[in-house]
């Protein structure tokens, strides 16, 4: 769980700012849910047989003896809030987004941390291929906003309940023939949660499921029609998508259309984010039956592929420096005046030398420095130095404000 500092903190801030502006364009509203929830929120939604619940959640007893957990993902908490606040009673489609920390006890590696950050979006209260296309279009728009290219969208459909039950029997029959070659977890899941085998990351299991029957062959007429409509919409939008019948997602609440967004810059673990439909989640959490779809994008994963040079740069502002004891008070007052005018400014507190002030300005990447010494005090002016061009000029306060 590393600190986020300096340039990384700046990039995080810019990513969050850009994301919020884009969500406003799509008319999504922000929601902020608690970091700590009742463990039941996640066991009932994510699924007790998933790796997240079995191996990765941070769960403990509070002082009252209640099981609580750090949230491992955002969708379950959003749905809990949707139910508790009675938003289903409006009959409207609810569009929400969140940005925040999630926690999983994974083995830390590049781009995968025990505390990580996600940008997520949910559309609750409707279903159908047009909303599936909408949620994918939001994900794509985010990537374009961040200047990300070369991504690919992998899509699949888990169909309706009858489709999944039919496919589970077909898949189980196939896997039983190869059960001895499966890892210990997958051998157990053949009998307890067979779709999870498709999500295993072990090479031996991946090699086996490559030859497994496709779930798309088990789709009913309605689910197949919806899936084909989605493909048509994505094609017309120019989205770079590909059918991938092996993706199932690592969370039990998914139904219908699911997708992953991958990027070659992330290596073998190339998932940038993912999402899909979860039409049964509200009922699983004792809410009303309602359609829903959403996605989550990992910010740490995103930072691995961002071209930081293309990200907006924070204005470092002007540095104001008093070059002797008699000038410090004037430097302090000037700094306050500039801030009062909406100009980003800081004061050099630790040095009284020209060299020290310029060295600090260079180190911090500032464009301008205002220097005040004995001569400037007598003239009632300020020395404005441009750090990019190395030019300088004496200016009045009115001129200074105009040039900054």
From TrEMBL:
Domain Aminoacyl-transfer RNA synthetases class-II family profile: residue ranges: 10-306
CC annotations in GO: cytoplasm
Keywords: Aminoacyl-tRNA synthetase, ATP-binding, Cytoplasm, Ligase, Nucleotide-binding, Protein biosynthesis
One BP term from GO: histidyl-tRNA aminoacylation
Keyword DNA repair: no
Residues annotated to bind L-histidine: 73-75, 104, 118, 122, 249, 253-254
Highest taxon, organism lineage: Bacteria
InterPro entries, per database record: aa-tRNA-synth_II (IPR006195), aa-tRNA-synth_II/BPL/LPL (IPR045864), Anticodon-bd (IPR004154), Anticodon-bd_dom_sf (IPR036621), His-tRNA-ligase (IPR015807), HisRS-like_core (IPR041715), HisRS/HisZ (IPR004516), HisRS_anticodon (IPR033656)
Annotated EC: 6.1.1.21
Chemical reaction(s) catalysed: tRNA(His) + L-histidine + ATP = L-histidyl-tRNA(His) + AMP + diphosphate + H(+)
Major enzyme class: ligase
Subcellular location: Cytoplasm
GO molecular function, one term: histidine-tRNA ligase activity
NCBIfam families in alphabetical order: hisS
Family affiliation: Belongs to the class-II aminoacyl-tRNA synthetase family.
Subunit structure: Homodimer.
Protein name: Histidine--tRNA ligase
Organism: Candidatus Omnitrophus magneticus
Organism placement in taxonomy: Bacteria, Pseudomonadati, Candidatus Omnitrophota, Candidatus Omnitrophus
